[in-house]
Amino acid sequence: MNFRDFSGFTAARRKSPWGAVALFFALALPVHANIVLKDDTGREIRLKAPAKRIVALAPHIAENLYAAGAGDRLVGTVDYSDYPPAAKVLPRVGGYSRVDLEAVAALKPDLVLAWESGNNMPQIDKLRALGLTVHVSQPNTMDSIADDLERLGKLAGTEAAANTAANAFRQRLATLRQSNTGKPPVRTFYQIWKTPLMTVGGPQIISDAIKLCGGENIFGHLKQMAPNATVEAVLEANPEAIIATGMGDAKPEWLHDWDKWTRMTAVARGNLFHINPDIMQRHTPRILDGTEKLCAHLDVARSRRSTK
Length: 308
Known about the structure:
The protein is 38% helix and 14% strand. The protein has two domains: 35-167, Rossmann fold, CATH 3.40.50; 183-303, Nitrogenase molybdenum iron protein domain (Rossmann fold, 3-Layer(aba) Sandwich). By secondary structure, the chain is α/β, with parallel strands linked by helices.
C-alpha cells in the first residue's frame, strides 16, 4: 500500500508520530462489512458483524455449526442435540417443536437459527418481535446441506472451515452419485415410525437420498414432509424393500410386523432393513453415512431378484 496516497496519514504524521502509528494500525486491522444474505424463506438477514452468540433450534443445526467451524459460537440449543459430544453440555431452550422463548432471550443471542418444517413458526415470529435476528433454513436436498454449511460460515465468520466442509461434502456426494447412477430402480418404503405409521413424502431430504441410490419412494408423490400412511396403502404399492428407523442402532421390533404379509415382495425376499435415524434423518454431513447404508441395502434387494 502506498501511504502517500492517504492525505490523512500525511497530516497525522506532521502533527504527531503517534497519530501516524495509530492510523497505520487502524488501516491494517481487518474490517468486517455488514453480512447480508437470504435464508430459505427468502427473508433478508443482516448482521453488523459475524455472530458470536448463536442459539440453534434443532439438533441438526447445532451439528452443522460444529461442522462449519462455529461450534464455539453456540450458547444454547434444544433437546436431543447430542452430536458432536460437545453439544451435549450446552444449555437447553426446550424442544425443537416447542421452544422456551424466555430461555432463548435470556441467552442474549445475536443470532437464532431455526428450522422451517420442524420449529413452530408462530414462535419464531415471536422471537423476531423480541428484536432477535432469526435465520430459517430448510435443507430438502442433499446438495442443500453444503449450501447450508457455507451460509453458516458466513454468518459466524468461519468461511474457511465451512467452505472446506462444504467442498468435502460435495466431493463425497458426487462420488456416491456416480457409483449409483444407472442402477435398476427399487420400489422402496421408508418407515419412520409404527404408531402412527409414518413415512416420507417427495419434498423430504430422505426422498432425495432414495433417488440417489436408484430407489423409488412409493410415497414420493405426496407433498407432505412426513405423511401418515396405512398398511393397506403399503400393501397396494407392494415395495421391493422396506427401510425402517427407530431409536438408535437397534433394529425396531416392529419392523418384523410386516412378516405376516408374505405376498409383499419386500417380505417374500427378506428385504427388511434398518438404518440408525441419526445418520439418515438429520440434515447434516452424516447423512452421507446413512445414504451409503441405504444404497447398500438396495443393492442387496437387487441381488435377490434372481434367487427369489
